Amino acid sequence: MNRPSFSREAGVFLLSLALLAGAAGGGGGGAAPALVEVYALRHYTHPNFTRIVLDLGALREYTYGELHAPDRLFVDILQSKLNPILHGQSYALGAEYLSQIRIAQRDRGIVRLVVDLDFNRVKSYRVYYLPDPFRIVMDIYPGRPEKAAAEKAPAGEPEAKPEPKARPAEPSAGGYSLARQLGLGIKTIVLDPGHGGTDPGCVGSGGEKEKDIVLDLCLRLQKLLAGIQGVEVVLTRETDIFIPLENRTVIANQKQSDLFVSVHVNSSLNPQRTGVETFYLNLSLDPDVDQTAARENATSTKSIGQMRDILTKIVQNSKIVESRDLAHKVQGRLVDALSASYSEVRNLGAKGGPFWVLIGSNMPSILVEVSHLSNAREAARLKEEAYRQKIAQGIYDGLVDYMQSLGKVPAVKK
Ligand SMILES: [Zn+2]
Questions:
Q1: For residue 208, how far is its CA from the centre of ligand 1 (angstroms)?
Q2: CATH 2.160.10.10 fits 181-405, yes or no
């Protein structure tokens, strides 16, 4: 019920978003974006609905969800800070279905809006954004709940399922999932060796193929992860077969996986470009990321017309915070592992990017670009068993870091 409905303006929506992203992208990649100020909160009560508008200085990711006992809706805006005038403010509305709105600065550059309401008196709500200037809008419609009438995803498209309805408590660490709040461990990890079959991925000057390298890397990683008690590891492919991008997260969802790791080898038009980078699903403000995403998305069968739904999922993906955290941990450990034995290992960072293979997953998901096949030095290293083992070890270390951050230390068999 919280999926925005689009009309014929969808094209305008896309164009505006692209312009906005372009305008904000002048700073170059790598550096963490500055905090953007949430400078105003406005609300209107119409006879048919209540609208709440948050005004921001620039495009930012956000997540939202329901909290129960007492009933609340929240929106977390990432990489943002609250104008001091708004800090800790609350606004009493007094409507029978909606009592008050609160806003506060949370940890680590996250602003949280909380709406206290009564879900038994709310028919539906939606959270969406408008560009120029960037605003996040929440519309709440009173009436009897229409939970059974929630909109279905278009046929054939994996739907990002909402969080479980019942939550025991408000997240304490900025939008972390139920599993994380409860300190539950990771039971299943899906490893996704990129490409396969008729799709070789990128190809080196000596004919070496990305699809073969990443399968070998994932098999090595699987062996390492097999040493952790209670964790099952599933590969999206164990042989040289083609699997459509869109089916890969479907596999992960079916397995009820807790983590999804897609492994790739990078390629650039610039043969000098080197390094390791890790992505989580997000809009990109970086032309280099767009180039990588375009290459990795090349075999998608999705039409541009489906992009509007996809973009909505990207900015509303409830797993952005965790995926980003996972990406940072894997990226850091991978660079550490390679740097310990190899010189000039370039850390290109953990960053957001619009990768089809990450869309539709219900769990924290990342895509690792382990090195460049287009660079002579890295292509030579990728042929070495030792280098491949270091890559697997680095990703493994990052995954273990992440699992430990959930509050449970995995028991590693020696
Ligand atoms: Zn690839």
A1: 13
A2: no
Least confident of 12-26, 37-51, 229-243: 12-26
Q: What is the pTM of this model?
A: 0.59
Q: Output the CA 266–ligand 1 centroid distance in Å.
A: 7
What burial class does residue 400 get, using C-beta atoms within 10 Å of its C-beta: 0-12 exposed, 13-18 middle, 19+ buried? buried
Give a three-class secondary structure readout of 115-133. Answer: EEECHHHEEEEEEEEECCC
Cα–ligand 1 centroid distance for 200 (angstroms): 9
Domain with CATH 3.40.630.40 in the chain: 181-405
The highest-confidence range among 119-133, 289-303, 332-346, by mean pLDDT, is 332-346
CATH class of 32-151: mainly beta
User: What's the gap in Å between 322 CA and the centre of ligand 1?
Assistant: 23
Neighbours of ion ligand 1 (CB under 5 A): 194, 201, 264, 296
Q: Quote the ligand 1 centre to 386 CA distance (angstroms).
A: 21
